[in-house]
C-alpha cells in the first residue's frame, strides 16, 4: 500500500464519485480505479461500494478511512 492509493481512496470517499476524485487528483478514471483495486487486493477486502449514485465507504473501508485520510504523513496508519 502506498500514499497514492490512500489518497485516491480518501478522495473517492470525499468526492463521492470516481470521476470527480480522478479529476481532483489529475488522473484518468481507469488509473484511479486501478489504484483502489490494488489497495483492496493488498488489504484483502473491499473499501468502497460502487454504484450508479456514486461511491461510499464499504463496511471494511470505514475503519481505515480516518487513518488513510491522515496517512499522507504516515502511510502505515492506513493498514489497521
Please characterize this protein's 3D structure.
With 80 residues, the chain is mainly alpha-helical. It contains five helices and two strands. The chain has helices spanning 3-15, 18-24, 29-43, 59-62, 65-70, and strands spanning 48-51, 54-57. The protein has a two-stranded antiparallel ribbon with strand order 1-2. It is globular. The mean pLDDT is 83.
Concise summary:
The chain has 5 helices and 2 strands. It is mainly alpha-helical.
Keywords:
80 residues, mainly alpha, two-stranded antiparallel sheet, 2 strands, 10% strand, globular
Order of helices and strands: HHHEEHH
Net shape = globular
Strand order of the largest sheet: 1-2
- Compute the gyration radius: what is it? 11 Å
Quote the average pLDDT.
83
Q: Helicity level, as a percent range?
A: 55-70%
Q: What is the beta-strand fraction?
A: 5-15%
Please tally the helical runs, counting DSSP H or I stretches of 4 or more residues.
Answer: 5
Note the gap between the termini.
12 Å
Number of strands: 2
Structural class, by secondary structure, is: mainly alpha
Uncertain spans, ≥5 residues at pLDDT below 50? none
Oligomeric organization of the protein chains: single chain
Report the major sheet: 2 strands, antiparallel
Amino acid at each position: 500500500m502506498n500514499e497514492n492509493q490512500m489518497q485516491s481512496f480518501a478522495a473517492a470517499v470525499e468526492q463521492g464519485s470516481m470521476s470527480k476524485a480522478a479529476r481532483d487528483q489529475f488522473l484518468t478514471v481507469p488509473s484511479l480505479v486501478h489504484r483502489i483495486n490494488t489497495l483492496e487486493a493488498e488489504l484483502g477486502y473491499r473499501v468502497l461500494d460502487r454504484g450508479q449514485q456514486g461511491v461510499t465507504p464499504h463496511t471494511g473501508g470505514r475503519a481505515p478511512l480516518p487513518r488513510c485520510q491522515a496517512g499522507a504523513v504516515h502511510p502505515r496508519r492506513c493498514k489497521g
